[in-house]
Amino acid sequence: MTDSTANENSYDLLVLGAGSGGVRAARMAASYGARVAVIENRFLGGTCVNVGCVPKKLFVYGSHFAEEFSDAQGYGWQLPKAEFDWPTLRDNKTREIERLNGVYASLLDGAGVERVWGTARFVDAHNVAVDDRVLYGKRILIATGGRPTLPEFDGQEHALVSDDLFYLERLPRRAVVVGGGYIGVEFAGILHGLGVESTLLYRGELFLRGFDRTIREFVRAELEQKGIALRFETNVTAIDAGPEGKRVQLTDGTELEVDAAIFATGRVPNTDQLNLSVTQVALGDRGEILIDEQYQTNVPHIYALGDVTDRVQLTPVAIAEAMVLTNNLYTDNPKRVLDYDNIPTAVFCQPNIGTVGLTEEEAAAQFGTLRVYESNFRPMKYTLTSNSERSLMKLIVNDADDRVVGVHMAGPDAGEIIQGIAIAVKAGLTKADFDQTIGIHPTAAEEFVTMRAERA
Fold it and tell me: How far apart are the first and last CA of the chain?
């Protein structure tokens, strides 16, 4: 097939994958005058909307009500015994996700992007087959995201992955979550909050590798005092299923009796079904697509962004990458390069984590002499309750120029607070700038502008 504007199967841009990055790229390219089609085989919005950020956050909200009901008594509210109904939360969540799918469809249709349902397979470097149809792309963007992966062990068929949790027929009474990344920690908290006897299992010495060590240790203590069982330096060797549940056998010789074993042990890029070998696009060791700073592969007209590149796996990053790519390909505006420094992020465990900038370990390696400020306190909201949850806030300052190079928080609304603080860190503000800012009283956030004493 050749490039022909008269051919109904010929496009300026073919987008493979209708996740957050792919949808944004398709819409923006179309708004700049390109003829665009987006190919998707599962659902609009990708992982984030369907089996990631959005439903997970709804589940986090739902799982926190047990504590809220308990805390309310300290404020004079006498409540009857609360009962939780899993199908109500699950099905209400599903209806909201279906609504969002409709929103994404409307956005694509309104932008003039053609939606093509099916699994895309390259025929050659310019042509992609979807069922019995072949589409030609002058340029092709691969934005197929990633998926959960399971390690190899006996009884693997008895394990669940994170996607499965959103559609469980019934809530387990006992569950083990395997994995020490943010997904595993979040799901352990969700299940515990919904009344499930929960164990979090991780093969390393402490979860949330890559986050600031102080925050990791603080969250460990908070999760333990809430009643989540934590097992470190332990892994699964086998799972046996019986009439009373599942027996999860561990590397330390012990076993767990559970109703569900949920694995959050990593994700892999969705490239294995694309037939990329016919294109000569270069892949990394994990199947990720290798790209340059302009999201271009080694094949000049093929691009990739988002989780399929296995770099910064965050929805706002994929969207930002799409904005940069389409600006550079389809406008006369100045060419842009995305700045990946100081990207804020959150972990919606309980308590939440919010973070931006360098960890203390990273800052020490980069700058040497630091000043570190910390505030560890019981949130005001809990002072009239029996809730013993605490918050931790931390500022990391480069001593040479007084610049705040890292800010970390664990506590209620950490993500909301750090989003605002991220602007200051991105702008390169100093500790003196923080100190000159008047706090809003009484709030937890004011701690970030009132910390004066360095950590001993």
Answer: 70
In whole angstroms, give the CA distance from residue 157 to residue 139.
40
pLDDT digits (tens, 9 = 90+) for 331-358: 999 999 999 999 999 999 999 999 999 9
Residue 87, SS3?
helix
**Residue that has been written with the tokens 């076993």 in this structure:** 255
Q: Contact, 237 vs 207, CB < 8 A?
A: no
Contacts 24+ apart (CB under 8 A), 328-331: 328/294, 329/13, 329/29, 329/139, 330/28, 330/29, 330/32, 330/33, 330/34, 331/32
Contact between 234 and 253 under an 8 Å Cβ cutoff? The reply is no
* Alpha carbons 137 and 165: distance in angstroms, whole number: 37
Tokens at 396, concatenated: 């990391």
Nearest partner of 143 among 251, 4, 281, 270, judged by Cα: 270
Contacts of 258 (CB under 8 A, 6+ apart): 172, 174, 175, 176, 199, 245, 246, 248
CA dist 227 and 296 (Å) reads: 48
pLDDT above 70 as % of the chain? 99
Q: From its phi and psi, is residue 25 left (phi > 0), alpha (psi between -120 and 50) or beta? A: alpha
Which of 226, 296, 19 lies closest to 143 in space, CA to CA?
19
Q: Which residues of 131-149 are buried (b: 16+ CB within 10 A; e: fewer)?
A: eeeebbbebbbbbbbbbbe
Report the alpha-carbon distance of residue 124 to residue 134 in Å, rounded.
11
DSSP label at 191? H
Sequence-ordered list of residues with C-beta below 8 angstroms from that of 75, at least 6 positions apart, any chain: 384, 385
| Dihedral of alpha carbons 357, 360, 366, 370, sign | positive
| CB-CB neighbours of 51 under 10 Å | 23
Q: How far is CA 120 from CA 15, 34, 216, 250, in A?
A: 10, 20, 41, 40
Structure tokens at 383: 């002072």
Q: Distance (Å, rounded) from C-alpha 213 to C-alpha 371?
A: 16
Q: What are phi and psi of 453, to 5 degrees?
A: -90, 130
At 159-182, the pLDDT tens digits run 999 999 999 999 999 999 999 999
Confidence of residue 456 (pLDDT cuts 50, 70, 90): confident
Residue 301 bears catalytic tag: no
Residue 19 is classified by DSSP as B
- Which amino acid does the sequence have at 115? R
Amino acid at 199: T
Query: Which residues contact residue 453 at a Cβ distance below 8 angstroms, ignoring those fewer than 6 apart?
Result: 373
